[in-house]
Amino acid sequence: MWRNWSGYVSSPKATVMTPGSRSELVDALRGAASSNAPVRVVGAGHSFAPLAQTDGVILSLDRLQGLIHVDAARRVARVHAGTRLYAVGAALAAHGLAMENLGDINVQSIAGATSTGTHGTGITLGNLATQVAGLRFTTADGSEVFASPDENADLFEGGRIGLGVLGVLTEIDLHLVPSFRLKLQRAKMDLEECLAQADTLVASNRSFELYWLPHTDTVLTKAWNITDEPADPVHWRRYVTEELLENTAFGLLCGLGKTAPLLCPSISRLCASLISPGQQVDASHSMLSTVRRVRFNEMEWSVPAHRGADALREIRTFISQKAFPLMFPLEYRWVRGDDIWLSPNYGRDSVHISVHQYKGMPYEAYFAGVQAICLNHGGRPHWGKVHALTAHDLSRLYPRWDDFLALRERMDPHGRFLTPYLRGLFGH
To answer: Of 124, 143, 178, which residue sits at a domain end?
Structure first.
């Protein structure tokens, strides 16, 4: 039975197939069509929304991974769409190249990450889909379609974030930059002090983000900048921070909070007291991503950058007025605007506010309150995270919504890549 990473989404009746070649993929699509079964493609299962949930066929591209071609002169690489991000980073480094930016988790497939608008942080840096130079789809009837700014331009504009409803994304061309090292600096700040200085902190660092710990006035800040300093020869400090503190110890505390919810505020304050400054230097693909072993469910909203601080303050007030058993930090990141039709950052620089709840703990009332606050600030949902919006709601948030619906209808007129959830999402 297929389940997503958090266990929140499952498909107990689905047939899971792992084609290892284009011919096997086409056979799987034709077989699904003959039985009138919907088809969904999965990567690492790191989406919290039920995008892949189906009683039909689930296609895993885990056997279709790796670099296909690297054009070092143009700084463009073609990769199999199922390739995991950590593998992309390591493979590109061998050619002296790198992706411009990454999210804070690197186990997703490149197709899953780009197709849902996954992003890192940095007001001059777009989400991962903005790094896409070309896309190759296999449609439900087995045909191939390539899209780039010069070929099938509308499919390129709309398909970089396509949620898997336009066809099976099999290959992706990526714009790259020369390899670089990053220096990460961690610090502890007061929340209001950090928000007051946010414009300066964002402008003076290549990438910057903050984590606010509920029931406290404390934030952990992270700032990354390109450096010529050598990579740290010893990684024990990173092991202590990420493995022992942020995973092992925090996981034990989350288990305690789940057992005794009244302790959650105290646990959050304890975590705040343990924050300490630190710094690390390593290759960009290693430095931008962290290990996440503590499982959770997540909601995330993109709001206009100038409204992010007010939205965060309202969420803080909302949390203080409710008896939520909450100890997970809230994550706050900046992303440059773009022109991708279904991008949460379409037409505006944005702040992304991510809220989490430990696996197995109630999240519905918490997430509903956050959704209402963020919608009032012009928020758009992250496609891979929990939200409760319908096609009617979404059509008012995305200026190119109708264009995407027409593109989806053209690419998949029989709705082979739609499930009940996706039909509701697109009003089909």
So the answer is: 178
pLDDT over 90 (residue 240): no
- The domain boundary, picked from 178, 212, 237, lies at 178
Q: What is the DSSP string of 323-355?
A: -----SPEEEEEE--B--TT-TTBTS-EEEEEE
Residue 383 has what DSSP assignment? T
Between the two ends of the chain, the Cα-to-Cα distance in Å is 27
In a domain, 138, yes or no: yes
Same domain, 42 and 99: no
On whether the CB atoms of residues 313 and 384 are closer than 8 A, the answer is: no
For residue 383, being part of any structural domain is answered with no
Q: Taking the complete model, does pTM exceed 0.85, yes or no?
A: yes
Q: How many CB atoms lie within 10 A of CB 246?
A: 19
pLDDT of the residue at 290: 85
94 lies in which domain range?
67-178
Statement to judge: residues 97 and 11 lie in one domain? no
pLDDT of residue 57: 97
Q: Annotate 257-310 with DSSP letters as a single string.
A: HHHSGGGHHHHHHHHHHT---EEEEEEHHHHS-----S-EEEEEEEEEGGGHHH
Q: Which amino acid is residue 7, in one-letter code?
A: G
Helical pair 250-259 and 264-273, crossing angle rounded to 10 deg: 160
Claim to verify: residue 107 and residue 172 sit in the same structural domain:
yes
State the residue for tokens 């302790």: 263
Domain shared by 12 and 93, yes or no: no
Q: Say how many domains are in the chain.
A: 2
Judging by DSSP bridges, how do beta strands 15-17 and 57-60 pair with one another?
parallel
Q: Of 241-245, 322-326, 355-359, which range is least confident?
A: 241-245
Structure confidence at residue 63 (pLDDT): 94
pLDDT, tens only, 2-60: 999 898 899 999 999 999 999 999 999 999 999 999 999 999 999 999 999 999 999 99
